[in-house]
Please model this.
Amino acid sequence: MKIRADYEIDLPEFQKEENIPVEEEGGPGNVNFPIASEAKVPEMPNVADTEEATDTFDASTKKPQKKPLLWIALAAVLLAGAFFVYNETIRKGNLERSAWEKALKMNSVEGYVAYMASHPGGARFEEAQAKLMSLKEKEAVRWEQLKTTGNITELRDFLQQYPKSPYASLVKIRIDSLSWVGALNTNTAEAYSDYILLAQSGDFKGDYLTLANTRREMLFQSYPVNETELDSLRQTVGGFYAALSMVDHDGMRRYLAPVVDRFFESGRAPRERIAGELLIAAARTQNATLQFVPDLSAVQYEKTMSDAFSVNVPLTKLFAGDGKSEQVTGYIVHMRVNPLFQITSIYETKPYPGAP
Model:
């Protein structure tokens, strides 16, 4: 019927399985279909509930850490404060005390300046300044006293006491001059060598270094010495200057060659003429005397190819007259002596320009 057809339900068709026997229960015509059992599906947790639980756990975990962090921060602040107090009071006080003791021990301009520079607000600043000014005054007064001194030891002591003094360069110039004068007064190769060594070591600038080298070469005996020749040369030098000091005509003729090529500032002339002119000059200056003192122990010589001798001798001159006397050192006499030990040429190197 049509009505029945309208209300029929289409059931899903099950694939028929071949050769599967159908078990009959309850009689013929009744078919039992297997009923699927319902599996229990686990419920998914609620997302909102999970987040809330996590926050609650974190909060409960972190709460106990707040107090230890607070104590650590407080301890750090206290330590920083303690270090600041130590640095500002104890440590700085110790450093200042040490610097002051060092300045007192040095007792120099440099020592007090160093203290004042490192501790401008120090407790001893004014005292250091007062001591500094006192030393400056003493330094200036001491230099005024040393300007005209001839004592090199005192000048060296000044440099040791005031190594950075504004007068240090002037003191060294003074030491240089006095050292040179000392070398001239001694007037030996060794004395000039000593001056050269001091200049090279930086003891002073060495303003006279060139002169010292030249004079050392003049007086240094490099030629092999023959004692017989040296004795004869000493006799000639000593005899001539003894006769010249006494204006002895015959004595001068004895030691001069018949013709002298150079006699100090005069040119070539016979010995008779030279001796005569010396007598006339001595007569004009009766109130004044001049003595010549050669250092015979320091005679330096070299033999030439013609068997003549080139001789250098240190000489001192003594001037006297009108109740005054003067001694001038540092002369070096240069002679040429023939094989007969007679002087053929004579002149001198003066210790300084304008020397008599």
Observations:
- DSSP finds twelve helices and eight strands in the chain.
- The two ends are 176 Å apart (CA to CA).
- The chain has a mean pLDDT of 82.
